[in-house]
Design a protein that fits this description.
By secondary structure, this protein is mostly beta strands. The protein has three domains: about 20-215, Jelly Rolls; about 220-230 and about 450-565, S-adenosyl-L-methionine-dependent methyltransferases, CATH 2.20.130.20; about 235-445, no CATH class. The chain contains three helices and 36 strands. The protein has helices at about 55, 180-185, 330-335, and strands at about 10, 20-25, 35-40, 45-50, 65-75, 85-95, 120-125, 135-150, 155-165, 165-170, 175, 185-190, 200-205, 210-215, 220-225, 235-240, 250-255, 260-270, 290-300, 300-310, 315, 340-345, 360, 370-380, 385-395, 400-405, 420-425, 440-445, 450-455, 465-470, 475-485, 510-515, 520-525, 535-545, 555, 560-565. The strands form seven sheets. Strands 1, 15, 31, 32, 34, 35 and 36 form a seven-stranded antiparallel beta sheet that branches. Strands 4, 6, 7, 9, 10, 12 and 13 form a seven-stranded antiparallel beta sheet that branches.
């Protein structure tokens, strides 16, 4: 059971409540992602719209109950409004009884409560908008009955819209919508042409809705402060903006280390070995057939004797996968196959001409080295060529890699010339952030999450404030929970031997415990004292490890600021 202690004394803090907005799905906040003519049509319709709770938890800050008091719908991209009047429209808001991904086609099964008084009821006149991209909000529903929604509960929101009467004149409007259930995290069930049928059909095109809301007064809420230590990443990369990099005439050397990652050093001198065999005749945005290495290549996290060359500046280790031009770190970190990216950007080899192309061969001067070379290959839509090379060295179980750059130009017209150099196992690898490869040596290690503290409940007076510490390392032996009356705001305790670790709570109350697993629950029992409404309390945790993680011997978690509330 979580340990609980009464309060001692607190410092009063205040907050200002004001109207705010959010858009669901969040991906449509500033862009068009889909459209549909079947939500505000030239017909009657009942449509249930399901929005994942993450749309609200990611946009409502601090996370606390909100009162939704207005709904707006956006016209489809770059068109003009058909101004019409719907004589009778009802809109209902409630918690969904099902997950957005798996709604029932029976309307009643998706409701957490029977339909009662609508949150909006009355006529609707569509509004003329500017025809922009994305377009304007052409339907405005001020709710007569606001709906209180708590994003911290993790329950999806259900919006049920019923258009009871045909529009006058009898024309409809296409509106902005989602288009993919998994990607946009929303869904719908609708019955076109009827408002009384008990069932409908699934559609991946629920409307884009702008929700107006006001934070609920006197609600308790949590705020995460700082970050825990130590988050470690095996991947590394440098993200270069278009037409900018500093790798020409250099070599990036990657050597496996004892921490399960690479030790990376960059030094002057490209040293590209000219190819002596015919190229792979790769064209635009393609991955080569399997290339069998003369040795087993070991890399942090795996080994293979087969690689695939991507025309866009990288090699795939083992299994094949799609060609990628990069553009974002996610293209490397979430790739389905491990990659070494010398210059992952939109390149354009010459295909069957096979002169400005990709070459793969054993180094003619060293049978223990395999070379993959992009020779005189320009970027898409550009002319200046790049010549660079990946050299794989057979070192037994300690194989090293050189990324050699004679010239590197990243000026493609397709993705603003963005270029990524680095290594990752992909498949959702941790993101270390961009590292300047020429700034000096650095090392990576096996992915490991930082010590993380999360609130399991909001700090409501008269209830329990529950917290959970996660990612406790197997080397942990003793933990300490800390409570305080203030936030010291320290994000790097290097001066006491805790480099990279922070302290986001004063040390007013401390409680030690023995580590027994990867998580630890604790908390406070809050008294039902209305005069404490709005007071802030702080907490964090630390874990001592053997062997010690640093000179001090401990790791700290992020902090949590709990603002006490009446509900």
């Amino acid at each position: 059971m979580p340990m609980r202690r009464p309060f001692l004394a607190f410092v009063l803090t205040g907050s200002t409540l004001f109207a705010q907005t959010l858009v669901a799905p969040a991906a449509a906040t500033s862009t068009e992602i889909g459209s549909t003519p079947n939500v505000w049509p030239n017909n009657v319709v009942r449509v249930q719209c399901f929005y994942d709770s993450s749309h609200f938890s990611s946009q409502v800050a601090p996370q606390a109950p909100i009162a939704i008091d207005r709904l707006e719908f956006r016209l489809a991209n770059a068109i003009s409004t058909n101004v019409v009047v719907y004589g009778s429209v009802h809109a209902y808001l409630q918690y969904s009884a099902v997950d957005y991904a798996t709604p029932s086609t029976t309307f009643a099964a998706n409701r957490s409560a029977p339909l009662g008084t609508p949150n909006y009821q009355g006529p609707v006149t569509t509004l003329a908008v500017a025809g922009t991209s994305p377009n304007g909000w052409f339907v405005d529903l001020p709710l007569q009955v606001p709906f209180v929604y708590d994003p911290t509960l993790g329950r999806d929101l259900l919006l049920e819209l019923v258009i009871w009467s045909l529009p006058t004149p009898n024309v409809g409007n296409s509106i902005s919508s989602a288009s993919n259930v998994a990607t946009h995290r929303c869904n719908s069930i609708r019955r076109f042409g009827s408002t009384t049928d008990s069932t409908g059909t699934q559609s991946a095109f629920p409307p884009v809705v702008r929700f107006h809301y006001t934070p609920v007064a006197d609600a308790g809420f949590n705020v995460s402060l700082g970050q825990g230590c130590y988050r470690r990443c095996r991947s590394f990369y440098e993200l270069f903006p278009g037409s900018a990099n500093d790798l020409s005439g250099t070599t990036v050397a990657m050597a496996p280390n004892a921490e399960g990652g690479y030790s990376v050093t960059t030094f002057a001198g490209g040293g590209v070995v000219p190819p002596t065999t015919p190229g792979l005749a790769l064209g635009d945005d393609v991955v080569s057939p399997p290339i069998v290495l003369p040795f087993t290549f070991d890399y942090p996290g795996g080994s293979t004797n087969v690689i695939h060359a991507d025309s866009n500046g990288s090699i795939l280790l083992g299994a094949t996968g799609p060609s990628t031009i990069g553009g974002t770190p996610a293209s490397l970190l979430n790739a389905p196959t491990p990659r070494i990216a010398a210059a992952m950007t939109d390149l354009l080899p010459d295909g069957a001409t096979n002169v400005a192309n990709v070459f793969a061969e054993v180094d003619p001067g060293n049978p223990g080295v395999f070379l993959i070379t992009w020779r005189n290959v320009p970027c898409f839509g550009a002319a200046a060529p790049s010549t660079f090379q990946i050299a794989l060295f057979d070192g037994g179980t300690a194989d090293i890699v050189h990324l050699r750059y004679q010239t590197l130009v990243n000026d493609s017209t397709s993705n603003a010339g963005i270029c990524i150099t680095g290594f990752s196992l992909g498949n959702g690898a941790f993101d270390p952030g961009s590292t300047d490869l020429t700034a000096g040596p650095f090392a990576t290690s096996v992915d490991a999450p930082a010590l993380a503290l999360a609130a399991l409940s909001r700090p409501v007076l008269g209830a329990n404030w529950d917290l959970r510490l996660s990612n406790i390392p197997a080397t942990g032996v003793i933990g300490v929970d800390v409570y305080g009356l203030a936030d010291p705001g320290l994000d790097d305790l290097f001066f006491v031997g805790l480099p990279g670790c922070g302290l986001r709570s004063t040390l007013d109350i401390q409680n030690a415990w023995l580590v027994t697993g990867g998580t630890h629950d604790y908390g406070l029992s809050l008294p039902p004292e209305p005069s404490w409404n709005g007071i802030a309390f702080y907490t964090t945790s630390a874990v001592f490890t053997v062997p010690p993680a640093n000179a001090f011997g401990a790791m700290t978690a992020n902090g949590i600021q709990g603002n006490l509330g009446l509900h």
